[in-house]
Specification:
With 264 residues, the protein is an alpha/beta fold. It contains 8 helices and 11 strands. The strands form 2 sheets. It has a 7-stranded mixed sheet, with helices on both faces. Strands 5-6-8-7 form a 4-stranded antiparallel sheet, with helices on one face.
């Protein structure tokens, strides 16, 4: 282990990654830059993580993107980053690039499906204490973080059964104490590939903590680096305990990249 508590393998991989010509640093927000909190709108990146992200944003040939399951509006609010940060919300359905952000336009069928989801999931949320529904651009997220284990489990089972019975080809994502339903099928992996092409990245660094981040990890190649924040099975090659260590990794990556001659 190094003096900052990161493995030698991870530090070595960061040193190599810092040398690439064009680097994309893509990051989940909740559980990665920010601790999990009961009220999602009160989440904020820890100061060390925010400082490292701002440093990376100022480096040449380096782009930083947040890739979140949050709606784009929510992500903009809680992250409060400069305009040169790329933002992806709703698992890739919403994207804010260097110009005006893409908007979500649902067709007539999708609008009807969202309305049906609202009715079905709204009834489920109303049936259990501390279960609530968050509207997303192409669906909803059923949150059960504050509910009892029993109510959370039953609410998920009922919501899954009734929603999939009403709508064919519904996209369902399981997260930490949340079940997300969408009439669109984009994933964080799709978003990462889009960002890779948009930024012409030579390599990608991706950090995330949730099950939905595995789609992004699966999109990484041999020259990329994946970092899992927290516990759980993962495809990422490296792991740290949580946001404070993610901040250390980002600060070290910024230090290496600032002091390294990039490949030509």
């Amino acid at each position: 282990m190094t003096e900052i508590g990161l493995s030698r393998e991870l530090v070595g991989a960061l040193h190599e990654l810092a040398r690439v010509k064009r680097l994309l640093v893509a990051l989940d927000f909740d559980g990665t830059l920010a601790p999990e909190v009961d009220d999602p709108e009160l989440a904020r990146a820890i100061p060390e993580a925010r400082a490292a992200v701002l440093t990376l944003l100022d480096l040449p040939n380096t782009r930083v993107a947040l890739v979140s399951g949050r709606s784009l509006a929510s992500l903009e609010q809680v992250s409060n980053l400069p305009d040169n940060a790329l933002l992806v919300g709703s698992h890739g359905i919403e994207i804010r690039l260097d110009h005006a952000g893409d908007t979500v336009t649902l067709d007539t069928t999708e609008i009807h499906q969202v309305s049906v989801l609202n009715d079905v999931l709204g009834e489920v949320a109303d049936s259990f204490d501390q279960v609530w529904l968050e509207k997303k651009p192409a669906g909803f997220a059923l949150h059960t973080r504050l509910a009892t284990d029993h109510n959370s489990r039953v609410a998920h089972l009922v919501a899954l059964s009734e929603a999939t019975a009403e709508i064919e080809n519904l996209k369902v994502r399981r997260g930490k104490d949340v079940l997300e339903f969408s009439v669109r099928g984009e994933t964080k992996g799709d978003a990462l590939e889009y960002l890779r092409a948009y930024t012409s990245a030579s390599a990608v660094f991706y950090a995330g903590d949730d099950v939905t981040d595995e789609d992004a990890f699966s999109a990484l190649g041999s020259n990329d680096l994946g970092l899992k924040s927290g516990s759980g099975e993962t495809l990422a090659a490296h792991r740290v305990p949580g946001p404070h260590q993610v901040a250390q990794v980002l600060a070290l990556l910024a230090e290496f990249r600032d002091g390294t001659s990039h490949e030509q």
